[in-house]
Amino acid sequence: MMKRRRSLLILSGNSPKSMQDAPVFEPDVVLFDLEERVLPQEKDSARHLVREALSFLDYSKVEVMVRINPLDTEEGQKDMESIPRVKPGALVIPKANPEIIRQVDSILAAIESEEGFLKGGIELIPVLETALGIETMNTLIRISPRVTGVWLNAEGLMAEFGAKRTKEGDELLYVRGRVGIACRAAGIHAIDTCFTDSNDNEGLEKDALTAKRLGFTGKLALDGRQIDTLNTIF
Q: In its UniProt record, which GO terms are filed under biological process (predicted)?
């Protein structure tokens, strides 16, 4: 049976108060971000903070994921050496393609062996945020049994296209449809992009219902106030 991943509350990896408070909102997943929400000069301190949180805070009622920096960067390499050793439920892999997933899978296998962890216990959630990622999606999601879901990051994809997202989301219909079908066929989670206006609950409901109709099983939340709506819809 698939885990419940209806709501994924994304938080900056350098916000101690948010890390403590996150489970109060009852998301299915707490996602610590070491990439976009952390300034370059704060990467090391954020990495240390996430390690400490995973080691000492009680997340027994939620699944914990960590979005690392891109693997082809120094920060990404540091993340891969450090974060798996405190055993998050899953790593979220930005700008994913098949070769990157192969590399991450190999690194995790070595760390699990060194640490005495269950082999394959750390799952992977590739982020689809480039045209290449979308085009290679069917290969990517079957490379490793660790891949138990994907996250469509529409902000990243629209940035590559030089376009802006709209609340209506018509520009995402084709891509969402492809992702929903591919994930359903593979039996993995399809996690939808966030709805960026945390004050517009009606817009959130409409966006989430559209995503669900297109095959998505859950959605990113930027604010704890969005969690109840997402848990209800998904």
A: oxaloacetate metabolic process
With beta carbons less than 8 A apart as the criterion, state whether 28 and 218 touch. Answer: yes
Q: Is 47 annotated as a binding residue?
A: no
CB atoms within 10 A of CB 206: 15
* Structural tokens at position 151: 């996250």
Q: What is the pTM of this model?
A: 0.95
Domains of the chain: 7-233 (3.20.20.60)
Q: Which tokens go with 19?
A: 């890390």
Residue with tokens 């974060």: 83
CA distance 10 to 36: 11
Closest by Cα among 37, 50, 22 to 225:
22
Q: Exposure of 127 by Cβ count < 10 A (0-12 exposed, 13-18 middle, 19+ buried)?
A: buried
Q: What's the pLDDT tens digit per position in 132-145?
A: 999 999 999 999 99
129 a known binding residue?
yes
Longest dimension (CA), the chain: 49
Q: Burial of 217 by CB count in 10 Å (0-12 exposed, 13-18 middle, 19+ buried)?
A: buried
